[in-house]
């Protein structure tokens, strides 16, 4: 596993990347965008930055700006661009509506077209032929349980030890991301340090010593798992009193921003301080 290295100019690079990304419509907040940019720059592993779910390119631009600055290669951005997730259904205006042209124009305008490998496919179509190691797996696609699980299961075999997986919308009202994050990440000793930033759930892949972080993951699980019963399958979201109770439960989950200077400390096993 590589050593955690935080570039000296990372804060400035994240600010500049967010300036470009924020011009693009999307659902990623500033804190969330800075977090995925930080992970892209400093995940202690080697391999591809893989994004599942690009929409109009906000997160793509953020990741690609960081990759451009530090020579990390092209960001692989996977999205059929057909509003296939529950989060986007209300934005579809016709059966053949697509975000691909707008995505392409936004990436070009951000100056990162040469640092993006856009795959206009479902993730399952890409994963069946995937062979490359992955250092950062960013999942923001179909938010159903089947969709999130397919995204995770399809690419987990290629996540490099020390790499990071992160799910968007784990703390929003979608059943897939939170359930997969709790059941397959927080409950697994293949993962080490984990946490939440905004609505992002993240964890470092540590198949050799993830058990050292078991107590930390278990404490997060105790706070996050009670959210799952409020989120029914089939895209149903809580309403009325259930929605109020869901938000009260969610308020107990720590999800503050992570600064670059904190990152290396968070990834150390507890025995190392």
Q: With helices defined by DSSP (H or I, 4 residues minimum), what is the helix count?
A: 10
* Main sheet: strands, sense, barrel: 7 strands, mixed
| Shape call | globular
Low-confidence region ranges: none
Please give the order of strands in the largest beta sheet.
3-2-1-4-5-7-6
| Count of discrete domains | 1
- CATH topology call: Rossmann fold
Order of helices and strands: HHEHEHEHEHEHEEHHH
Please tally the β strands and state the result: 7
CATH class: Alpha Beta
Structural class: alpha/beta
CATH superfamily: Vaccinia Virus protein VP39
Give the helix/strand layout.
Layout: H1 10-21, H2 30-42, E1 48-52, H3 58-70, E2 75-78, H4 100-109, E3 116-119, H5 123-127, E4 134-139, H6 145-155, E5 159-167, H7 175-186, E6 191-197, E7 200-205, H8 214-224, H9 240-250, H10 260-267
Parallel strand pairs: 1-2, 1-4, 2-3, 4-5
Antiparallel strand pairs: 5-7, 6-7
Helix pairs in contact: 1-2, 1-3, 2-3, 6-7
Question: What's this entry about, in short?
Answer:
Helix content is 39%, strand content 15%.
Commentary on this structure:
The structure is a single chain. It is built from 10 helices and 7 strands. It is an alpha/beta fold and 273 residues long. It has one domain: Rossmann fold. The chain has a 7-stranded mixed sheet, sandwiched between helices. Helix 6 links the parallel strand 4 and strand 5. The longest helix has 13 residues. It is globular and about 45 Å long. The protein starts with 9 loop residues before the first helix and ends in a 6-residue tail after the last helix.
């Amino acid at each position: 596993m590589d050593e955690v290295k935080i570039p000296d100019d990372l804060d400035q690079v994240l600010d500049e990347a967010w300036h470009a990304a924020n011009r693009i419509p999307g659902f990623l907040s500033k804190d969330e965008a800075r977090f995925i940019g930080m992970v892209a720059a400093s995940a202690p592993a080697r391999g591809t930055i893989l994004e599942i779910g690009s929409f109009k390119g906000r997160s793509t631009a953020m990741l690609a700006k960081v990759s451009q600055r530090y020579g990390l290669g092209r960001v692989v951005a996977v999205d059929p661009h057909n509003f296939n997730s529950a989060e986007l259904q209300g934005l579809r205006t016709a059966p053949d509506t697509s975000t691909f042209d707008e995505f392409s124009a936004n990436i070009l305008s951000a100056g990162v077209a040469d640092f993006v490998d856009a795959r206009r496919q479902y993730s399952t179509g890409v994963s069946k032929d995937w062979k490359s190691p992955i250092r950062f797996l960013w999942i923001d696609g179909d938010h159903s349980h089947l969709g999130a699980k397919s995204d995770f299961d399809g690419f987990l075999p290629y996540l490099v030890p020390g790499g990071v997986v992160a799910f968007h919308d784990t703390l929003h009202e979608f059943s897939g991301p939170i359930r997969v994050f709790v059941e397959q990440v927080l409950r697994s000793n293949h993962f080490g340090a984990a946490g939440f930033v905004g609505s992002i759930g993240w964890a470092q892949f540590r198949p050799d010593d993830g058990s050292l972080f078991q107590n930390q993951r278990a404490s997060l699980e105790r706070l996050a798992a009670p959210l799952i019963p409020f989120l029914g399958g089939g895209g149903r979201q809580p309403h009325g009193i259930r929605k109020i109770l869901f938000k009260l439960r969610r308020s107990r989950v720590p999800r503050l921003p992570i600064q670059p200077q904190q990152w290396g400390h968070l990834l150390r096993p507890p025995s190392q301080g």
